[in-house]
Amino acid sequence: MQIQVTSGRLVDQPADTYVVTVPQGSRRLSGQAAAVDGALDGAVAQQVRDDLITGKDGEVTVIPGAGKVPAKRVVVLGTGKRDDPETADRLRARAANLARRLRGMEAGSVAFAVGDGTGALDPAEAGGAIAEGFLLGLYRFDQHHTRAADRASGSIGDLTLVEPVARKTAAVEQGAERGRVMGEGTNLARDLANEPANLMTPSIIAGRAQDVATEHGLECKIIERAEAERLKMGSYLSVSNGSVQPPKFIVLTYRGGRGNRFIGLVGKGITFDTGGISLKPAEGMQAMKGDMSGAASVIGAMQAIARLKPNVNVMGIAPCTENMPSGSATKPGDVVYAMDGQSIEVINTDAEGRLVLADGIAYAKSQGCNTIVDIATLTGAMSVSLGNVRTGVFVNNDRLWSELERASERSGERLWRMPLDKEYEDQIKSDVADMKNTGGRPAGSITAAKFLEKFAGDTPWAHLDIAGVMSAAGDKGVLVKGMSGIPVRTLVHFVLNRARG
Ligand code: BES
Ligand code: MN
Ligand code: ZN
Fold this sequence. Notes:
This protein is about 35% helix and about 20% strand. The chain is of the alpha/beta class. Strand 3 and strand 4 (about 75-80) form a beta hairpin. The protein binds ligand BES, manganese (II) ion and zinc ion. Zinc ion binds near residues 270, 273, 352 and 353.
């Protein structure tokens, strides 16, 4: 789908479908909706008078063009109560829901009247929200259905955003372009995470990272097992012991600033989590193909960053491996050493995410990362506390927290700050090593974060536990059933804001 921006009047656009917006409870049409209504001899206004069009948020009414306008149909989209302030988040969700409706009606090429009702929004933000909404809402993962009838039907042509005010067109266009990049980065993360584990092994994901790097001009380094051994990444490697798939530690580097300091993005890349010797129950285990969602979000964010070119340095790090049981697997009670020399008693081999992140974070520090954000489907306890609505954030630095909060306001991906009181650390004290990898049932997400904090040390660090939000149960707003691609857009906004200073 192409997304274009043009200035002018909707009724002059050659498109199959026009979209105009009307707010709730207004008796009179205005802006581009009024112009289209005029061309249709008052057919829209008539439906408003008859209460067939109420303007309720998300309401979709189709009116035939009947040869009076170039388009075959005019879609009237309700934007809700005028008093509810229009936000990028509402516009994005409305655009995503609309995009699926348009696809269902085989809408062909679409010309969308921007400006009406989005007046309160900055034009770049409006353009970005609509572009993101369309790209995210239309996403689907159906390539493994070999019969066309089993794939979701419907298609949609190109999208043209029509901005009547000429001096705003450039901003809408800039915003739409950034929205496209954000949407495509998120959809890349969704593609990687939706793929089943037999088709998304550590080697395959490393190949995909290499492809992204080649296409968009990033440096890509894959640390193989032998090199990881030389680097003494004993914690990460202990997770791979039970698998026949070779582990791959992915490093993507973007250089947009001066010097050798980086923002480090570290994503958990467990391509399948059986639990290892501490085997998980069979019920629902297939969901663990998504246990590399953190790594996927880092690769998706790095693609977007490479395309948007902010003037800051970013290193994307994704320690990837399977977590399998076998004769060579790590056993409960084993003691392993991370690359920074700290020792860990492995109480439960199913608490493997923190083991790979320990070396991911230690490696980030060794490479000059002076801010580290890790992203991980780390604990089932996270979805117990925050469900699928908010990502839990553990952060050792108040400034970094405000930066993440700001980025999340832009993306609409909601965060919630979680505690890191020192008392929680008592739960991960080990009798035989510097720490143990589980802290028992109480505060399971917090003790996992306390474990990671020991590797971050004094470096400003944030840990995003995305276990609850990694997937969506159905289509709703920008979310489509399956993997969510959260928090790619938040990470990219965070980096862009850093670059702006
Ligand atoms: N990958 C899981 C966490 C998870 C569970 C993510 C459900 C998404 C959905 C993680 O590796 C894990 O198994 N965590 C354990 C930790 C426990 C053994 C301390 C858990 O949450 O049960
Ligand atoms: Mn696990
Ligand atoms: Zn896991």
